[in-house]
Amino acid sequence: MERKYAPLVITNFVVGRGSLDYLGTFEKRRVSVIHGGPNVLSDATRSRIESLIAGSGGTCMFASPILREPFLSDIQSIGKEVEEYQPDMIVALGGGAVMDTAKVVQMFYENPGISQEELVRPYQIPDLGKKAILVAIPTTSGTGSETTSAAVFTDDETREKHLMLGNGLIPPYAILDADFTDSLPSSIAGYTGIDALTHAMEAAVCTIASPMVKSMAINAAVDLFENLENSVSSVVAPDVKAEARERCHIAASMAGVAITNSCTGLAHGLDQPGPHFGVPHGQTCGLLLPFTVAFTGTHPSYVTIAKRLGLKGKDDTEYCQALIKRIDALIANVGNPKSFSDFGISESEYMGKLEYFAQLAAPAMATRLAPRIPTIEETKEILVAAYYAY
User: Fold this and answer.
1) Measured distance CA(30)–CA(10) in Å, rounded
2) Looking at the chain, which terminus has fewer C-beta neighbours within 10 angstroms, N or C?
3) Which of 210, 198, 178 is nearest to 296 (CA)?
4) Considering the entire predicted model, what is its pTM?
5) DSSP for 235-282?
């Protein structure tokens, strides 16, 4: 098969506790801050941002908060606030929903006549940065949206999710200040961390991943395996937990870089039960991961991860089996549900949707770029196993 080459696309990272201060170096005059509300924008953080911007001669406005996965109406409402202010920099402070909102808001701000149909043409959307620079400051460690070429929003009428894709969506700067993660509840840190692990595991085996991307993904996966439990623990020393949070924060962004330069995999391709039954994305991917890894089977990247974790095996098959057990243990230890039945989803309703879910999964890019592509029947078998957790 002919190999196609492409340059690695990556944001400029500013990393370290206290790195929010980097905001003061941009010397922008008008800054719009899109944020996730009081959980991330405390009075102290607000004052600090205002002071940093003022210190470089600018002013800032704080848009209405994003408190849910963004609907198009939410984006349009905040877009009007941003348009009125006419910023030359947009700061996205929050989780994946905030990052996605900021990307779409900027798209409308710089391309006011663009239609919803034009928004969802993969890799055919205009590049951003003509009027404002986007600076992403994630406060969760999971989606990697601060590094990715994607943004997701929901149609208000149909309730369908739409995907905007284009390398121009990658924020030019991502500030990884782990101070923001310290107050994150362990439950959220757990399932967002599993989401990041899924990104890393899937990029590591993606059929279009370059050797550099695989190396990045494998290292991110190992860091998450080694640190995620401590990051959610209530018994480890505070300094140990703080270091684990920072390691996970960095690993989640590196996993985001890896999927941006390759693709997600089967857990994402088969994740339709999640949005259908209202299961959070990270928890959906997490509970699917052991089953999709098992279906993929023995793979060199899995073997490398297992060996770096110090797992035991007589051959590659045993290493991969040990890795699946390690995934199961991690999911349990961070409190992520292990099956769809754990969410109280009706067995009959779930099983009645299997064909529908399988048909949706088949054409997904994440499915098609996996190292082993399931048939419709195999997809249904994976989803059945994920319902019962056997």
Assistant:
1) 26
2) N
3) 198
4) 0.92
5) SS-HHHHHHHHHHHHHHHHHHHHHHHTS---HHHHT-THHHHHT--HH
Tokens of 180: 């923001």
The two three-digit tokens of residue 155, written as one number: 């149609």
**Structure tokens of 31?**
């800054």
Tell me the pairing of strands 150-154 and 133-138.
unpaired
Single-letter code of the amino acid located at 377: E
Q: Which domains are assigned to the chain?
A: 12-181 (3.40.50.1970), 186-388 (1.20.1090.10)
In single-letter form, the type of residue at position 278 comes to G
State which amino acid sits at residue 230: N
What phi and psi, each to the nearest 5 degrees, are found at residue 136?
-100, 130
What are 327-386's pLDDT values in tens digits?
Answer: 999 999 998 888 999 999 999 999 999 999 999 899 988 999 999 999 999 999 999 999
Tokens of 349: 């309703």
* 336 backbone dihedrals φ, ψ, rounded to 5°: -80, 135
d(CA 379, CA 33): 42
Orientation of helix 281-296 relative to helix 316-333, angle to 10°: 160
d(CA 147, CA 191): 19
Nearest Cα neighbor of 369 from 285, 282, 268, 299 is 268
- Give one DSSP letter per residue of 41-75, joined into a string: --HHHHHHHHHHHHHTT-EEEEPPP--SSPBHHHH
Half-sphere exposure of 154 (CA within 13 A, CB side): 13
Q: Where are the beta strands (DSSP E) in the chain?
A: 12-15, 30-35, 59-62, 89-94, 133-138, 150-154, 161-165, 173-176
For tokens 């962004």, the residue is 253
Estimate the crossing angle of helix 186-205 against helix 300-308, to 10 degrees.
130
Structure tokens at 181: 């993660």
Two structure tokens written together for 247: 């390691």
What's the pLDDT tens digit per position in 228-281? Answer: 999 999 899 999 999 999 999 999 999 999 999 999 999 999 998 988 888 888
